[in-house]
């Protein structure tokens, strides 16, 4: 509604509701942004803890590889073992 005295016109019901909704949306988006930042910090913490176990995992892998190998006999003992299997 326009006034003739030069003052700014009053806002319609639609404009008032639109401003209210835009304010609510802006507040909700700010809340979402804050929660995403919290999630990001939490994920960074989890990744940092996981990275701390990298060296430990490497040591256990080496240990597992060493323990899974068959002991190698020297060549002379291997020949004697093969001959003793043929003898009986």
From TrEMBL:
Location of the protein in the cell: Chromosome, Centromere, Kinetochore; Cytoplasm, Cytoskeleton, Spindle; Nucleus
Positions of the UniProt region annotated as Disordered: 67-88
Matching InterPro entries: DASH_Dad1
One Gene Ontology cellular component annotation held by this UniProt entry: mitotic spindle pole body
Coiled coil: none
GO term, biological process aspect, one: cell division
Assigned keywords, A-Z: Cell cycle, Cell division, Centromere, Chromosome, Cytoplasm, Cytoskeleton, Kinetochore, Microtubule, Mitosis, Nucleus
MF terms (GO), sorted A to Z: microtubule plus-end binding
Any one Pfam family match given in the protein's UniProt record, by short name: DASH_Dad1
Annotated family: Belongs to the DASH complex DAD1 family.
Protein name: DASH complex subunit DAD1
């Amino acid at each position: 509604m326009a006034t003739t005295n030069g003052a700014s016109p009053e806002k319609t019901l639609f404009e008032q509701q639109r401003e209210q909704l835009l304010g609510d949306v802006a507040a909700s988006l700010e809340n979402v942004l804050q929660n995403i930042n919290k999630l990001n910090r939490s994920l960074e913490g989890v990744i940092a803890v996981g990275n701390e176990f990298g060296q430990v995992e490497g040591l256990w892998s080496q240990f597992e590889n060493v323990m899974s190998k068959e002991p190698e006999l020297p060549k002379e003992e291997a020949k004697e073992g093969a001959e003793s299997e043929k003898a009986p």
